[in-house]
């Protein structure tokens, strides 16, 4: 019970979650992550219609992280209904990541997600390289407010908003999301970045720009969580470069109620969930904490 936590009305057996974007397309892959010990899972972002995504190369390995511009490939939200059948009675919250090009589209996708049994929706307003969706919304407090308000009116399940670090003040954007009714904030999506091949002079990603994830962005993500935690009252979910229990603890001390893990799965496999939770548990025991919630925001007393 030391690891059990809750956020936005969701009960998690431990504070680790699968981040959107990896192993999130099928019921079977999500089930693998649940069996590996994740406290909650988030699907790949899905929209109203199927989308092919960008041409290859869509992923590039850099010195300390992955650079991706997948281009939101997804089968469309209604196709996920079949996958949801595999995820009944797991006891682990299933969070559907959704995107849209307008408030009306977000509402339709969120309603469909609610009807198919999602325990929560995570609004992706932060993909760094999708025109007219993604970060263009997450950089515009007025548009973000409209979307969050409309989705809140349309669904009963908790609404989580995933923010981009590519803004002047993530705290101001988080405040706008909270005021519009967000039940929790996920910080952060990937950091806009690029890589160029020296011999040819060519950008490595077909899309030229992409989003950087992994260890390189952890200090940026920790700072964002710290900033968001002190500007809103709703729970914050940390995301960006978590690959060890120490990383998870660092995010919680900054103010995260839970942490999402993505890129580390590519390097360490789904076993990363049990190694992180075991490490957190040992830390709590060694330090004399009764529950992981006691850690949240402790760094703010300094
Ligand atoms: O699919 C992507 O290219 C993608 C998305 Br939707 C996102 O939110 N973040 C990211 O780094 N890539």
State the end-to-end distance: 28 Å
What fraction of the residues are assigned to beta strands by DSSP? 15-25%
What structural class should be given to the helix and strand makeup? alpha/beta
- In helices, the fraction of residues equals 25-40%
Low-confidence stretches: none
Order of helices and strands: EEEHEEEHEHEHHEHEEEHEHEHH
Query: Rg to the nearest angstrom?
Result: 18 Å
Largest sheet, strands/sense/barrel: 8 strands, parallel, barrel
Looking at the structure, what is the overall shape? globular
Quick summary:
By secondary structure, the protein is an alpha/beta fold. The protein contains 10 helices and 14 strands.
Description:
It is a single chain. With 302 residues, the protein is of the alpha/beta class. The protein is built from ten helices and 14 strands. Strands 3-4-7-8-9-10-13-14 form an eight-stranded parallel barrel, surrounded by seven helices. Strands 5-6-12-11 form a four-stranded antiparallel β-sheet, with no helix packed on it. It is globular. The model has no long low-confidence stretch (mean pLDDT 96).
